Amino acid sequence: MKLRTLGLSMVGVAGLMALPACKKDEAPPSAPATRPSAPTQEAVPPTPTAGAGEAAAPAPAGNGVVKGTVSFTGTPPAMAELAPSADPACDGRPEKEQSVLVKDGKLQNVLVRVKGPVAGAPAAPSTPVEVDQSKCAYVPRVQGAVAGQQVVFKNSDGTLHNVRGVVGTRPVFNVAQPPSGAPVQKPLPSDAEVLRLKCDVHPWMTAYVVSNPNPYFTTTGADGTFTLTGLPAGTYTLEAWHETLGTKTAEVTVKEGAPTEASFTFAVTDAQAKQ
Predict the structure, then answer these.
(1) Which residues lie across from 198 on neighbouring strands?
(2) Nearest to 248, CA basis, from 52, 68, 119
């Protein structure tokens, strides 16, 4: 699975509520699109967090390990240049679109996870996963969460953001986050695995939170490697999910105390290369 904006003050929140949602890179709906709700400010008391994504899950009881690499073959698609921004809070943001990041043939931001329920896996942790807004980018861009877990949004920038959560083309929530405002916490959708995040103030901002019924998931870094630990012995379907390149799957058999190797390879198809 592939702007020049001005810094806004709190006085501009009302104007933001009238902004149309940025839809250029979302699939057209089969029925007339639902107008996104106006952003609301919802603060929650500070909640102790365990960091982003999988770090929040309790350690499972198993002793199995799956490790490997996600590679990319062929010429990576050229990432579009982002329009300049006059917002000083955005200084240091990436200059190009970030959906496909390949370095030395390795693919970044691939969520690798065990599909389906796992016997004996712990319940969703009470601590939320965290998405920060830093230099006008969501950090992290891609992460996992256990189904039923909450997600908390922080704004570390000195400018106004909004967080619009979307499942497919369906709006789920839309909240405004002023500079240095309190974190906002939301539940993950119970009827979908992939929650996409957008900012209408800075339309290049995109992130994904992928919910999973078990805590065995991780996201590849720049070197494309991944390691899943704590799995009970057994045979599992392993999935590698990418925001634009789709998914790859592999069957793995995990043994107690004996690492299992797995690897995935993505490539740009002719149809994708023409997009």
Answers:
(1) 164, 206
(2) 68
Task: Tell whether pTM > 0.90.
Answer: no
Q: What is the pLDDT of residue 272?
A: 62
How many Cα atoms are found within 13 Å in the side-chain-facing hemisphere of 197? 28
Alpha-carbon gap, residue 273 to 52, rounded angstroms? 32
pLDDT at 23: 38
3-state secondary structure the chain: CCCCCCCCCHHHHHHHHCCCCCCCCCCCCCCCCCCCCCCECCCCCCCCCCCCHHHHCCCCCCCEEEEEEEEEECCCCCCCECCCCCCHHHCCCCCECCCCCEECCEECCCEEEECCCCCCCCCCCCCCEEEEEECCEEECCEEEEECCCEEEEEECCCCCEEEEEEECCEEEEEEEECCCCCCEEEECCCCCCEEEEECCCCCCCEEEEEEECCCCEEECCCCCEEEEEEECCEEEEEEEEECCCEEEEEEEEEECCECEEEEEEEECCHHHHHC
Nearest of 141, 113, 126 to residue 214 by alpha carbon: 113
Can you tell me the distance from the alpha carbon of 124 to that of 161, in angstroms, rounded to the nearest whole number?
29
Q: Name residues whose C-beta falls within 8 Å of residue 126's C-beta, 6 or more positions apart in sequence.
A: none
At residue 41, does pLDDT exceed 90?
no
